[in-house]
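Input protein
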Amino acid sequence: MKIVSPASNYDIACCIGRCQSIVWLCLKAQRDVSETWALRDENGEAVIMAGLWPRQDGVVEAWFLARPEAQRHLKRIVRAIRLTLKRKAYAEIEVRIVTKAGARIARLCGFSLHDTFDGAEIWRHGRTIRKKRQRRG
């Protein structure tokens, strides 16, 4: 297994397979504005890819795409995500989760369930902006 950065469009294709063209275009655009990584297997195919996308409100949105095979490498994936997040200086990182497997990865990586919105769970990692403002006040 090998971690590469930045992740490629091929990594997207490995992780999601066939999809509608609008989904493909959205994922490519998201990759283009994000800091990205992919964990590739011995055949060079991505098992999981992830990114951090800074939003205009100061929050960084985390995202990931995983193949079912990622389950076999969960310990390594979680360790890589935790080490990456620890090195980042972002005050708050948010991820939207729509699957039980995604919620499990988020929880194992140190995210906490914050809210639900439009069928998705919102999980957060790090200091919240509100707590940061309270400390200044």
Summary: Residues 132-136 have pLDDT under 50 and may be disordered. The chain has one domain: 2-136. The CA atoms of residues 47 and 91 lie 28 Å apart.
